[in-house]
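quick q for whoever's on today - can somebody do inverse folding on this one?? i tried earlier but teh output was garbage lol. tokens:
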């Protein structure tokens, strides 16, 4: 029996490789049949927006990685309500096909419920 792990997605999608590497690490863990959940908070919520032209800044879009989550068994993820509100983002703006988005008010309690927490 495996324990569930939580990945905290804290960084903006572009400017460094941390956001992409975090999603890729989650996908790799899920491919190895590890039970993973994700929580997007802080500037990490920007990862969930559909970026129009990241190629204009020499970056690849994270959208394909996010759309792959359900194929790897990650059919839901959590997003911090406060982080969305502070950035004027609505749940409707961040829908990922095949995955359910759950808004969370008390992120501290959610994080405390996991024995293993990774931060990206």
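ok took a stab at it. sequence:
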């Amino acid at each position: 029996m495996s324990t569930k792990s939580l990945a905290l997605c804290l960084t903006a999608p572009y400017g460094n490789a941390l956001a992409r590497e975090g999603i890729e690490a989650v996908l790799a863990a899920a491919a190895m049949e590890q039970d993973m959940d994700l929580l997007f908070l802080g500037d990490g919520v920007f990862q969930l927006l559909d970026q129009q032209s990241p190629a204009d800044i020499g970056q690849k879009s994270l959208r394909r990685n996010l759309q792959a989550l359900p194929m790897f068994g990650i059919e839901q993820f959590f997003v911090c309500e406060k982080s969305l509100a502070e950035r004027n983002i609505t749940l409707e703006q961040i829908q990922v096909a095949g995955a359910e988005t759950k808004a969370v008010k008390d992120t501290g309690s959610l994080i405390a419920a996991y024995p293993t927490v990774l931060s990206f």
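fwiw The chain has a mean pLDDT of 89. also Residues 84 and 90 are 7 Å apart (CA to CA). so keep that in mind when u check it
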